[in-house]
Amino acid sequence: MFLLKRKGNHRLQLTRTVSEPGRYQVDLYLFTPHEDSLTSWTLSEQQFLFTSIEHRFSLLGLPEQDRIGKSNQAFALLSPHYEITFGSWLFQYRASMERLRQQIDNSGLSVDLINRALRLSRNFAQRLRNSSPAKSSQQRYYRLADIYYSWHTEQFLLECLAMEDFDALGEDIRESVIAFLEREYQHRQEHEYQSSFKGNATRVWNRMGLYHRLLEYPVLLRPKVIELGEGTRKIVKAVSTTLIMALFTYILFNTRTISEQLSLSLLFGIALIYAARDLLRDDMISAITRWIRKGKPRWKIRLLTPYTSKPFAGKRVWLDYRKRADLPKQVKESSGKWVTNETQQIVCYRSVTYFDHSALQKSHLQERLSLDCEALCEMIQPTTNKLYTWSEKDDFTSEIKAHPIEKQHDYDLLLVYSQTGHEHSSAQRWSLRLSSSGIVECEKKKANWPKPEGEEKEQDKKKKDKEKNKERRQSSN
């Protein structure tokens, strides 16, 4: 299951953990309100892929229960570099905290979730700070990791303290959180970390964002992109040139048999043929190549390990614009309940990644799929319209207020994913509302995706048990 998080005004980030070898497929369908305004002419598929979609993998190391049996050998297998080991620790901890944040958003605050966050934070701090490096070249990375961990944990706990229903959890849990924050503050003072926390809120946020990028660099798999279809394009170009020149030669020889003298009209006809060839050749070659390669991947991406640049995994990528009639049958059936316009454009992104057993034996991965909506927001033209109303609805002597109108577009985001060992695919859906300034609203919706028969029976059973328990409570009351 993917977790969604908003990053800034324009970006959405979907993350999950990959721990088993095999084939992983991710299909992302963005249902747009555009009919003719979103095409390969206004925003090409290649431009959309490299500016609006980011699909990356980062090393998380091995889970704690697997690490115990492998002792020091686990990290030797993971990487010969110190930064990769510490980076995988940090981002595994960060992924665990993000899952807790998602649980809080879904089910609300609870004492158990706060205690779990404190326990995770204490364990990670102990593991990190008990492994302080001796080499000066490694101390800089350790310092950045310690500062970022302290800030990230503080922000998580302060956010929980600021929630309205935190006081209902009791005074004991509040004292535990504040005691932890006081210890972190003292630790920063003892190690002279306070300089990283100076400045206004914007400067501190941007500084920590820079630390995050520096810490993340050693654990990110490096993508090497190879565009597919170049050989097909060359063959189409050669065949089209052969046919055009054969036709031209045939016309020229037939004209020569009729008249042995070169006329002005013949020269003009030859020039027109060359002009038409140069004018239509590139578009014709692109159209024929696209038709031949329809349904085939457009890019091949090799994921390389950091520093060593050894092959880690392979990925195939598709991206194109479609109408609803061209969608797969299951997607078409599921989208029929929220799509009303059959002519709207749909951005279809597909990624198929292959992980072998040796790759995931060394480290689990965090898969991160980001969607940047800035290019889509730029297509929304700001308006100067205003809605005029009375300040008091029933009082016609009150003041008149002018409310500026912001133009907004509604999108639907459907994510379908599958992996080896699972016969049925799963789906998640979100409803997006965009304006010229960014994402206005992002709400999780029901995907209407069929579930395996066994899972449906289990859910029906839980539902019936819940209804029975409710009836028993009512009868007892």
- Main sheet specs: 8 strands, antiparallel
**Percent helix among the residues?**
40-55%
| Average pLDDT reading | 84
Number of helices: 14
Helix/strand-derived category reads: alpha+beta
Strand order of the largest sheet: 5-6-7-8-3-12-13-14
Query: Which shape, going by the Cα principal axes?
Result: globular
Low-confidence stretches: 65-80
In whole angstroms, the N-to-C terminal distance is 39 Å
Order of helices and strands: EEEHEHHHHHHHEHHEEHEHEHEEEEEH
- How many beta strands in the DSSP annotation? 14
Radius of gyration: 30 Å
Beta content: 15-25%
Overview of this protein structure:
The protein is of the alpha+beta class and 477 residues long. It has a domain at 229-292. The protein is 47% helix and 24% strand. It has 14 helices and 14 strands. The strands form three sheets. An eight-stranded antiparallel sheet has the order 5-6-7-8-3-12-13-14. The protein has a four-stranded antiparallel sheet with strand order 1-2-9-4. It has a two-stranded antiparallel ribbon with strand order 10-11. β1 and β2 (11-18) form a beta hairpin. α9 packs antiparallel against α10. It is globular, with a radius of gyration of 30 Å. The two termini are 39 Å apart. The model is unreliable at 65-80 (pLDDT under 50).
